[in-house]
Amino acid sequence: MIKPLELAIGLRYTRARRRNHFISFISMISMMGIVVGVWALITVISIMNGFERELRDRILAVASHVTVSGSNGWLAEWPRVSERIGGLADIRADAPFILGQGMLTRGKAVTGAMLRGIVPTLEDDVSQLSDHLQSGSFDSLESGNYHIVIGYVLARQLGVEVGDKITVVAPQGKITPAGMLPRLRRFTVSGIFRMNMYEYDSALALTHIEDLGRLLHSEGKVSGLRLKLEDVYQAQSVNRKLTQMLGSGYYINDWTREHANFFRALKIEKRVMFVILFLVVAVAVFNIVSALVMVVADKQADIAILRTLGLSPGSVMALFVIQGTVIGLVGSLAGGVFGVLTAMNVETIVPVLEQWLGFQFFPADIYVISDFPAEMRWPDVFIITALSFVMSIVSTLYPARRAAKVQPAEALRYE
Question: What mean pLDDT comes out for the span 143-149?
Fold first, then answer.
């Protein structure tokens, strides 16, 4: 237990005298290193959390939270399945869909696309695609009209705008006396959306579920049901519940599985950034060791006098632990405060910096996300601050042990 005398002497040692300004300067550099390291670490981790949230929201605006499909690729009794799963409290809405691959052509332009047949009146319940329409409307997707809504990259590749006609070629052909002929149909572009996700903007096309069903000869079947949950993070739990409820004749998938590799890569990148930036804190901690070693060498006479006055080796050790702890505590807390303030205001700070410097960090015409979304999480702040403080305390143990081993007779021999 640290006594008042040890605390008073330890705090006194943190203040410089005339003869040891250099040691105090090293201590100040150590403290500033911890401040900068903790500050940068909290800010960068918060920005990466924001990027992860932004990408997740954009993906989930199109992708399903949970998908229920038949084991053979088609779901015939989908109304009965919809009625059964509708009783689960975790499910907010569901909508049938048909999914297929095809080619879109106009003149000499040909490109592949993922065709999704939807019920327009139900689609808004399970996705946010309608919020990202650049032109046109989902209301135009009526059965028998053969209208289609495509991504803006797909529209640019085909050179079409709203009102233009394109040809959709299905992969399944039909047998005629003349041989195998492709199954195709003329569609009118009635909408163009932009998600700022190349995967969707360049390869997704939506039409009415009955129009696509006629093109693919689905015979009233659908590919499955898309489910929207009350809480997207309960997708795995809902997946397990549906698997037990529906049995073996169905295939249940959720967004955590469908995009597992993508989000796993983000987590690995965040961990690597954490380790790299934490090295800044480690360098500052090593500076604490060197500063305290110099303090011990400078204060050997003082230590010897205190020992002769009855101060125990443990108390001497506590003096220097206190000094290093003060440096680590002030540095960690100051860095935490600066990091929290920066993370909470980064979306305001970055535009000001861009205006002062005269260029954009992430130009909108190059990067998917052009701003700096930040999501500060208090557990991250506590972990980073606590680890920095603990490392600072650990760094004091070696110099403090050296101070405790100082022999009064040896130290005072030449004084």
Answer: 92
